[in-house]
Design brief:
By secondary structure, the protein is α/β, with parallel strands linked by helices. The protein folds into 3 domains: about 300 residues, 3-Layer(aba) Sandwich (Rossmann fold), CATH 3.40.50; about 110 residues, Domain 2, N(10)-formyltetrahydrofolate synthetase (2-Layer Sandwich); about 80 residues, Formyltetrahydrofolate synthetase, domain 3, CATH 3.10.410.10. The protein is about 30% helix and about 20% strand. It is built from 19 helices and 24 strands. The protein starts with about 20 loop residues before the first helix and ends with a strand. About 55% of the residues are buried.
Length: about 575
């Protein structure tokens, strides 16, 4: 990664009551015009298909990853910190862009609510970003379900190549949590025309099409990856792909605009790029390679967030996104909170979909000390990849000075490069200035990223490496048929792919009940699938599912709209 080049200083004054600027003004500050962008209304725009090529002669900026410790069900403000950090870097006179994932309607209407930040570290237009945005997720859903429809039509008409129904792995997708669709039967009343068979729905964010979109380098690569999707096999075991069904081209046509990253702005009117939305617990959890590559040609610093903790999003950021995209971070930020680490002590009754218990937000030094082993574990994970993180302690109003001081000292003793308190939610960029300075210092000595397994290793060894080196497990227990299926994938030529494990985000292990830094456990992998188009093999660990359900009090119940069209209750 090249050094940051000198650009004219443009230290910002911050509007305390921001409203979004026209997107062409944000674009003009980046040196962009109508040849590079297509406006989508007044406050958002899509990049052109060849934007990266147009800027390929520009020097590349510094690449900063943001991850976190194991979270509570309400999240620990990682998006808020990423937005705040990018705004603070701009405020210090550098040019910075944050690249974030598009919110899925699953969590927006489920447990966590809106995914465009919060407080004074928010993306604008927040309502648009959370609801439909530029239609990218709908395009992913449509492309996914087009393939599903073509498969059933192919089966019903007994077309060549003939698919053995029992080998069909492709499922439908929906961008709303609906557990009743996780396992369904199709063709119930039309057995003569559509074979009756068992299948199900995945959340759009967990679909292979979403992963393909996020990992593609350009439109041609997208088309090629869609073509490689493994649909099923013939009765003799010959693989059948989306290209064999002659539908990859139509899927690519549906995704022609969705592959183009979206330019928006922060609440301090600095640039942000929002694109693709794979989950980190059941997918690979990072925004698109295309978005990051474009941003790296436009700014001194690019701040990108990977989902959930270092065991989920950061592991997949390194092993999948960086490896496939030929990227390498110049610094990594590890977000932690007092409440998350007290939760990791195991002394509090926390349930997804319910408010956090009041005693979790009162000073409890013993619980904080006990749960801080989770912070140590995440720092150690990053060390294994050759990365010394900057720890950002995301401050909440209930945190005490004693707790914050303990965490800062603990993080430094645990091996963090720096540890600072950030308060972006309340103060915006002002609350992240110390963090921005620490990140700039860290970027002066970029880490030498190292992978924890070789692509030449067999698939079972790759799963074991992640489980033991990242999660701290004693090993992996594969279900009886899983090892045979892994051997089949290797025989079909998929053995050199990286792996992706779908597991709970609440624990370093596969079991959400094992908090802190669990030991003496083995990771059970009960199912494996090959995402041949995305370019990885993924395993499902523990009781993880790819179509979550809604909580007892879904966030959708607090969302409403006023007579003048203003959405309430979204953030």
């Amino acid at each position: 990664m090249s050094e940051v080049v000198d650009r004219p200083s443009r230290t910002r004054t911050v509007d305390q009551n921001p409203s979004p600027r026209p997107i062409d003004e944000i674009a003009a500050e980046l040196g962009l015009d109508n040849a590079h962008l297509e406006p989508c209304g007044r406050h958002k725009a899509k990049f052109s298909l060849d934007a990266e090529r147009q800027f390929s002669n520009r020097p590349r900026g510094k690449y900063v990853g943001v991850t976190a410790v194991s979270p509570t069900p309400l999240g620990e403000g990682k998006t808020v910190v990423a937005i705040g950090l990018s705004m603070a870097l701009n405020r210090l006179g550098a040019s910075a862009i944050c690249t974030l994932r598009e919110p899925s309607l699953g969590p927006v209407f489920g447990i966590k609510g809106g995914g465009a930040g919060g407080g004074r570290a928010t993306l604008l237009p927040a309502d648009d970003i959370n609801l439909h945005f530029t239609g990218d997720l709908h395009a992913v859903t449509a492309a996914n379900n087009l393939l599903a429809a073509v498969i059933d039509n192919h089966l019903g008409r007994r077309l060549d190549p003939q698919i053995a129904p029992s080998t069909i792995a492709w499922r439908r997708a929906l961008d709303v949590c609906d557990k009743g669709l996780a396992h369904i039967e199709t063709g119930i009343d039309l057995p003569a025309r559509v074979p009756r068979r068992e299948t199900g729905f995945d959340l759009t964010a967990a679909s292979e099409v979403m992963a393909i979109l996020a990992l593609s380098s350009d439109l041609a690569d997208l088309r090629a990856r869609l073509a490689r999707i493994l649909v099923g096999r013939t009765s003799k075991g010959v693989p059948i792909t989306a290209e064999d069904l002659r539908v990859a081209g139509a899927m690519a046509a549906l995704l022609r605009d969705a592959i183009r990253p979206n330019l928006v702005q922060t609440c301090e009117r600095t640039p942000a790029i929002v694109h693709t939305g794979p989950f980190a617990n059941i997918a690979h959890g990072n925004s698109s390679i295309i978005a990051d590559r474009i941003a790296l040609t436009l700014a001194d610093y690019v701040v990108t967030e990977s989902g959930f903790g270092a065991d989920c999003g950061a592991e997949k950021f390194f092993h999948l996104k960086c490896r496939i995209g030929e990227l390498s971070p110049d610094a990594e930020v590890l977000v932690c909170t007092v409440r998350a680490l007290k939760y990791q002590s195991g002394r509090f009754n926390v349930r997804p979909g319910k408010p956090l218990p009041a005693n979790l937000e009162t000073e409890d030094s013993a619980a904080l000390r006990a749960g801080s082993v989770n912070l140590q574990a995440h720092i150690d994970i990053l060390h294994r990849f050759g990365v010394r993180p900057v720890v950002a302690i995301n401050r909440f109003p209930t945190d005490t000075a004693l707790e914050l001081e303990f965490l800062r000292d603990f993080a430094l003793e645990a091996g963090a490069q720096a540890a600072v308190v950030a308060d972006c939610f309340t103060l915006g960029s002002e609350g992240a200035l110390e963090l921005a300075e620490a990140v700039r210092t860290a970027c002066r000595q970029p880490p030498q990223l190292r992978m924890l397994y070789s692509l030449e290793d067999n698939l079972a060894s790759k799963f074991t490496a992640v489980a033991t080196e990242v999660y701290g497990a004693d090993g992996v227990d594969f279900a009886p048929d899983v090892l045979q299926r892994l051997a089949d994938y290797e025989a079909l030529g998929y053995g050199d792919l990286p792996v992706c494990i779908a597991k709970t985000q609440y624990s370093l292990s596969h079991d959400a009940r094992l908090l802190g830094r669990p030991t003496g456990f083995r990771v059970p992998i009960h199912d494996v699938r090959v995402a041949a188009g995305a370019g990885f093999v993924y395993g499902l660990a523990g009781d993880i599912v790819t179509m979550p359900g809604l909580p007892s009090q879904p966030a959708a119940q607090r969302i409403d709209i006023t007579a003048d069209g203003r959405v309430t209750g979204l953030i």
